[in-house]
Design a protein that fits this description.
Length: 512
């Protein structure tokens, strides 16, 4: 029997306006969870509840909040296998990858548990006597966090852990198609001792979420919006937040380039391209979009890459496979559209394309009743092609060639995204020239475009985000505000820039 899941606000189940069935994409006849979806008013009410709870949570000393984060990490660690299995069941992510995703929560907690003792301000020297200057980090208030379902537990932790650590309350809206995984993660978080209302989980569709966010911003009950999802929706979130003079944390899509130099280790490059292009069935924001390979090694790289892709195992995510199914039917429908972007001047270099079925099998695998698709490599993409310019969320990778590094950098930047990038080279000069020229927020050298560590800033520029960063100490600037304080104990009013002592130099002095 499938799980029954509803929103939880202030520690209590909330009313549902409609229901949604979260389906196992590997076996589409299985319902993983029946999800009660809330309306806009419930979302706005959750933000009001969070606002009330946040006042008391902020009074808890930061080192104590850090110990709560430590407890979350230990609880997730103790439940890692069960949570990973649920992620695999609900979104079709291979179990090994799902375990790695759960590990990311633990790593994030391990980093931030210490930040509870390092939310440092400064003591700043004053230009006047008998006066002290200080700076303090203060929580922003309530964070409304909306996350995608391709990383249903790891990416949310990048928001939830630092937000809670810094003394904020959170209203979290996960993806409906990953609701069971999110609900399980929520339960682990509250088991660590979070007071009611400090973390709330609301399941809702996109339209009701947006309207609820609008209501909450108008009421002044949200001070920070975090969003992970498409660039198109990110623009709407950014516009809404901007009307209320807020700067959201936006982590959006990518068209991530991989440059292969003539001196590259081609076998290593193929390994990186295979993982970043087709791991998670190409459904990462950091998935490889286009391989930009030097003309002198184009044919050699393509031959090896295609051989690796055609040999890769696609199938049941509970087994040892490169990729399982697409996340949900809506992503399968969208991917079908991406396949129509293949033009006559392109060459599909891999053996097959489209959905894996009995009539279109992959070896002896017929796709059962899952949302499985053949991985596709398309050679000959050109600047201006939709396959070159736009994000393709799914198992399709384009290939083009270049003659100079400057040309490669220009091609890499052309689509206007700026999330992740990669270069394969054995020449340090190439690596640093690429780093200087690429617009991406993240650069890999001799590594894939995918993969993040909990203590390194994660985020993009251009169509990939607004420059905000997650992870590591850099995310603290998303969930705190700097407050300056001056304390004058001189017993008189001292005016800055006016009552400042001046020591007069003899600027005409010269050595004899």
């Amino acid at each position: 029997m499938s799980r029954q899941i509803v929103s939880i606000v202030g520690g209590k189940d909330a009313e549902s306006a409609s229901t949604y069935d979260s389906i196992n994409p590997a076996r589409t006849g299985e319902i993983v969870a029946r999800v009660g979806l809330a309306d806009a008013e419930t979302f706005a009410a959750a933000c009001r509840t969070a606002k009330e709870a946040q006042r008391e949570w902020a009074k808890v000393p930061a080192p104590v909040r850090g110990r709560v984060i430590a407890s979350i990490g230990r609880l997730v660690e103790a439940n890692a296998e069960r949570l990973a299995a649920l992620v695999t069941e609900e979104i079709g992510k291979p179990y090994g990858e799902a375990l790695g995703e759960v590990r990311e929560i633990v790593d994030t907690c391990d980093f931030f548990l210490g930040e509870g003792r390092r939310l440092y301000g400064q003591t700043v020297p004053s230009e006047m006597p008998d006066k002290n200057l200080f700076t303090f980090r203060t929580p922003v208030g309530v964070a409304a966090v909306v996350t995608a379902g391709n990383f249903p537990v790891a990416v949310p932790s990048w928001y939830l852990v630092p937000a809670l650590l810094c003394g904020n309350a959170v209203v979290w809206k996960p993806a409906e198609y990953a609701a069971a995984s999110a609900h399980a993660m929520y339960r682990l978080f509250v088991a660590a001792g979070l007071p009611d209302g400090v973390l709330n989980i609301v399941f809702a569709d996109g339209a009701e979420t947006f309207r609820g966010l609008e209501l909450a911003l108008e009421a002044g009950s949200v001070q920070k919006v975090g969003f992970t999802g498409s660039s198109a929706v990110g623009r709407k979130i950014g516009e809404l937040a901007g009307r209320h003079l807020q700067s959201p944390c936006l982590e959006l899509g990518g068209k991530n380039p991989m440059v292969i130099m003539p001196d590259a280790d081609l076998d290593l490059a193929v390994e990186g391209a295979l993982f970043s292009g087709f791991g998670t069935a190409g459904q990462r924001c950091t998935s490889l979009g286009t391989v930009i390979v030097h003309e002198s090694v184009h044919d050699a790289f393509l031959e090896r890459f295609v051989r690796a892709v055609d040999a890769a195992r696609i199938g049941d995510p509970r087994e040892d496979v490169l990729a399982g199914p697409l996340l949900d039917q809506k992503f399968a429908d969208r991917y079908e559209e991406y396949l129509t972007w293949i033009e006559p001047h392109h060459r599909v270099a891999t053996a097959a394309k489209g959905r894996i079925t009995k009539d279109n099998p992959r070896g002896d695998f017929d796709g059962a009743d899952g949302l499985y698709y053949h991985p596709v490599v398309v050679d000959g993409v050109r600047p201006g092609d939709r396959l070159f310019m736009e994000e393709t969320f799914g198992p399709i990778v384009g290939v083009t060639s270049f003659s100079t590094l400057d040309e490669a950098i220009e091609l890499a930047n052309l689509p206007g995204y700026g999330l992740s990038s990669s270069i394969y080279t054995t020449d340090a000069k190439n690596a640093f020239r690429f780093r200087e020229g690429i617009s991406a927020g993240m650069v890999s050298v001799n590594n894939s475009t995918s993969g993040a560590e909990a203590h390194l800033p994660f985020g993009g520029n251009g169509k990939s985000g607004n420059g905000s960063r997650q992870s590591g100490m850099w995310v603290l600037d998303q969930f705190t505000r700097w407050q300056a304080m001056n304390w004058d104990h001189s017993g008189r009013l001292q005016k800055a820039q006016m009552d400042v002592a001046e020591i007069v130099p003899d600027l005409d002095f010269r050595l004899a």
